[in-house]
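TICKET: design request
STATUS: open
ATTACHED STRUCTURE:
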């Protein structure tokens, strides 16, 4: 076994691999934030509808995206062991599973308005949200296919290209939104439907660009050669690892969507303020997502080499980097909450003052769970690196749904704390997840590498 790397080396390599992924995730999320900002300028009603509709779209997406995320540890381990064939097989079958999953969603998404009404949303919000979902479902496979390609390239430690492709997509999305939402540049004024069309177009272009880059950069991998041929063994491997990843992400994402649904029970202004706070918090969270993707790659390599010492040191480095950034975010939130919230609201909107006041309160409260949110995603990332996904899935479900959602409901409604109490409940769920998942990793590391 080679000499273990120092902690400084682990931090340096993590940052080198992860910062382009951070940039790509920030740019990717900025695409969705651009939708939110522009719809907020269009109308508070459209902002509220987009908050709940995009949240619903996302939690359904992340279940299937688990197949793409499974590619990262599987390909990274295969490359470490010199098995290019296995890397190709699992990537192809991840694309197959993504296509199957996306096709199954088309009919249910046609009834998006009815679903939103069923979960208690106001009729005006449900109508606009349903329009968005009927169009946005067409972007499900492109988004999932792009996730597979990003995971494959990330496992190969080819991360810089992801940043550049996403930056171009961000600029294109802003232009298309500007045209289709407001009716500029000779386009029709489509409002929330225009935002949905823009998302589908950009998702498709991103997937195609990543596939073209992969083919040109790694022609020897023959990734797309005879891609129509099924591979039951590889598909089974991806499914068994990817479904728990997707369900774990669903449990976490569902925590926030559940909070949006409950906030919608309080009122439209509260839901709009909640959507702004979620957007800002999720934007900052993209740093953790990018760095933890890098942590999964690094952990997978050490796992493939059965290098327990560097596996643990790499985990310590990931915790240190994410928690340090969490501290910086807290300082920003506390220093300028009003400036951050006001970016999302049209100054002439009659509801501006009410949304701004509540949004500031929620941003200040959201600073509390920066650390626990960072802790839980780092633990999940290193567990995925050692291909431990089933037990973490159940730990996440218990933390988010058995503890987090009930805590939010009790604080918001039973004890009358309102929107702020709802966010405190989120903090409780994330904190429990950070503790349980962290204990799982440190308890199982020796056996995973033995």
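STATUS: resolved
RESOLUTION: sequence designed for all positions
ATTACHED SEQUENCE:
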């Amino acid at each position: 076994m080679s000499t273990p790397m120092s902690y400084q080396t682990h931090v340096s390599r993590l940052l080198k691999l992860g910062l382009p992924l951070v940039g790509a995730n920030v740019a990717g999320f900025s695409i969705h934030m651009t939708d939110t900002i522009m719809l907020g300028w269009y109308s508070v009603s459209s902002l509220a509808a987009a908050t709940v509709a995009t949240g619903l779209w996302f939690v359904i997406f992340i279940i299937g995206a688990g197949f793409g995320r499974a590619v990262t540890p599987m390909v990274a381990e295969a490359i470490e062991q010199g098995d290019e064939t296995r890397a190709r097989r699992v990537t192809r079958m991840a694309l197959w599973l993504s296509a199957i999953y996306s096709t199954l969603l088309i009919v249910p998404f046609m009834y998006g308005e009815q679903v939103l009404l069923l979960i208690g949303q106001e009729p005006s919000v449900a109508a606009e949200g349903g329009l968005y979902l009927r169009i946005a479902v067409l972007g499900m496979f492109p988004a999932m296919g792009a996730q597979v390609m990003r995971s494959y390239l990330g496992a190969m430690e080819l991360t810089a290209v992801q940043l550049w492709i996403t930056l171009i997509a961000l600029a294109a999305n802003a232009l298309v939104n500007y045209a289709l939402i407001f009716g500029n540049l000779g386009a029709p004024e489509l409002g929330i439907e225009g935002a949905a069309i823009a998302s589908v177009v950009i998702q498709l272009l991103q997937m195609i660009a990543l596939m073209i880059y992969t083919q040109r950069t790694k022609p020897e991998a023959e990734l797309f050669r005879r891609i129509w041929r099924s591979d039951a063994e590889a598909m089974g491997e991806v499914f068994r690892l990817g479904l728990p990843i997707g369900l774990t992400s669903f449990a976490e994402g569902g925590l926030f969507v559940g909070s949006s649904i409950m906030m919608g029970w309080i009122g439209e202004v509260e839901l709009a303020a909640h959507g702004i706070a979620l957007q800002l918090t999720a934007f900052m969270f993209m740093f953790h997502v990018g760095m933890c993707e890098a942590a999964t790659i690094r952990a997978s390599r050490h796992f493939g080499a059965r290098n327990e010492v560097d596996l643990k040191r790499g985990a310590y480095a990931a915790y240190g980097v994410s928690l340090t950034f969490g501290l910086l975010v807290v300082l920003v939130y506390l220093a300028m909450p009003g400036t951050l919230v006001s970016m999302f609201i049209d100054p002439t909107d009659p509801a501006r003052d009410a949304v701004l006041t509540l949004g500031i309160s929620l941003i200040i409260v959201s600073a509390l769970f920066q650390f626990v949110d960072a802790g839980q995603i780092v633990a999940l990332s290193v567990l995925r690196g050692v291909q431990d996904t089933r037990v973490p899935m159940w730990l996440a479900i218990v933390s988010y749904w058995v503890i987090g959602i009930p805590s939010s409901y009790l604080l918001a409604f039973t004890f009358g704390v309102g929107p702020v109490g709802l966010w405190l409940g989120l903090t409780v769920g994330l904190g429990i997840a950070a503790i349980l998942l962290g204990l799982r990793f440190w308890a199982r590391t020796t056996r995973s590498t033995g």
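CLOSING REMARK: The chain has one domain: 7-449. Residues 7-449 form one domain.
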